[in-house]
Amino acid sequence: MTAKPLTDFSRLSINDATTKVQWTLEEEICGYAEMGIHGISIWRDKLQACGVKKAAGLLREEQMTVTGVCRGGMFPAATPEGRQAAIEDNWRAIDDAAELNAQCLVLVVGGMLEGSRDITGARQMVLDGLHGIVEHARQVGMPLAIEPLHPMYAADRACVNTMAQANDLCDALGEGVGIALDVFHVWWDPELKQQIQRAGKERLLAFHICDWRMPMSDMLLDRAMMGDGVIDIPQIRSWVEAEGYDGFHEVEIFSKDHWWKKPAREVLRVCKERYLTVV
Q1: Residue 3 lies in a domain
Q2: Which of 107, 140, 210, 224 has its CA 20 to 30 A from that of 230?
Q3: Does the pLDDT of residue 2 top 80, yes or no?
Q4: Which domain holds residue 160?
Q5: Whole-model pTM over 0.85
Q6: How confident is the model over 86-124, as pLDDT tens digits?
Q7: Residue 198 is part of a domain; what is its CATH number?
Q8: Counted domains in the chain
């Protein structure tokens, strides 16, 4: 099965990390809308700088859909007090995402404790943390989207690294918990298609796109624009859409030495061009 060609921008979203250094959140909301892009995913640092109520008003004025709030998670901590603080921070993130009418809160779950080699223990703290927030998320109607990260981040950012692990957590937690699939993190997985099928439409809450540059100069901040790397994005999109996913395609590019150095409107112009030609 091949992905159907994309012919318009009605399902294009931009994660505001893509214009992280060029624009404030206020500028992003207005600038994206001016360029015919009506999906946005918002990082919490920019949200706090703007103010949740002000951002919510601007989003309504510009008829923007918030495809995600980034990020919740980061559950492991060395003390019970630290783990409780993480849960409470996630409660606040859930409430902020609900005020923006976001489609999901994206969870980057956290890695191992500093100096630790106990990844099993870290994964248990993640599960415990998720149990600590899922009921609040259900009460306010905010879907939680677990984002498996590439294994190179297992130690410090996310000890959930495959779609299979994310699906297992969804099995354990039940209603209201799904997956944010970012092609950058999972493209390499030989079980990817089967795990997308296992997730199905109900669990596929977000679909993030960019590309994997060869060689990569920075593990975190050298993502490539779609079409400039090795990921077969149309194939992965076809697998996701075969399960009934009909949501947004969210461009998320961290690029300190390339795209963050270009004017925001140029970045968005290229995003739109590549969206129709290589996604």
Answers
A1: no
A2: 107
A3: no
A4: 12-277
A5: yes
A6: 999 999 999 999 999 999 999 999 999 999 999 999 999
A7: 3.20.20.150
A8: 1
